[in-house]
Amino acid sequence: MPKSILVTGGTKGIGKAIIHRFAKEGFDIATCSRNQEDLRRLKEELESKFPKIKVIAEVADLSQKDQVKAFASKVQAEFQPDVLVNNTGLFLPGAIHDEPEGNFELMMHTNLFSAYYLTRIFIEDMIQRKSGHIFSIGSIAGTTAYPNGGSYAISKWAMLGMTKCLREEMKPHQIKVTSILPGATYTASWEGVDLPIERFMKPEDVAESVWAAYNLSPQSVVEEIVIRPQLGDI
Fold first, then answer.
1. Helix (H, G, I), strand (E, B) or coil at 136
2. How far apart are the first and last CA of the chain?
3. Superkingdom of the source (predicted)?
4. Claim: this prediction has a pTM higher than 0.90
C-alpha cells in the first residue's frame, strides 16, 4: 500500500516543494488552497509527472473551522495520511499596538487553529497504527522577536509551543513530531521585494530538510530544524 502525505497550502512555495519531493518517492498526495485554478494546475502537473500516485486537491479556507473539517473528511474518504504537514500560513505585517483590527484573529485562525484542528482529526488514526510523522512549518519569527512582526510572530511562537507539547504527548505512541523553522524563503510572500533572489533560501531546500527528517530510523526523531539564508536573516 503506498504511503501518503497531507500538506496544507500546497500550491506555492514551501508546501509545493514538499509535495513534489514526496510525490517523487511515490507518496499519494492531499492538499488544499483557497484558489481553485492553482489547485487545478498543481493536480495536472503532479498527475502528468507522477502518473501512479493519487492526488486530492480541494478548495478550502483553513481559517474557517467548518472548512477544515470538510477538507479532512474528503481526505479520510480516500486515505489516512502517514505524514501531516501543517504548512498553511498567512503573513500580514504590522505592530501589535497599531495593526489593523482583525489581523490577530485571521492569522491565529489560519496559522495556528487550522494546524490544531487537523492534527486532532488525523492523529487518532496515527495513534492506533503507532506510526506517523507530523511536521509544523513555523518560522524564525517564532523564535526571534522583530519589529513589524505583530500577530504573525505571535501565531508562530504559539505554533512552536503547540508542536513542542505535541512532541511530548506522542512519545509513547511512536509518532514523530518535528518543527521546521525557516528563515526568508523565496515564496509569494516576498514578491516585489527589492532584493536579489540569491539572498533568499530555496523552497526546495526546506523540502529536502523535511524529507531527510522523515527518513530517520524509528529510534530517532529530529525535533526542530532551523534553516536560515547563508548570509543571515533579512
1. strand
2. 43
3. Bacteria
4. yes
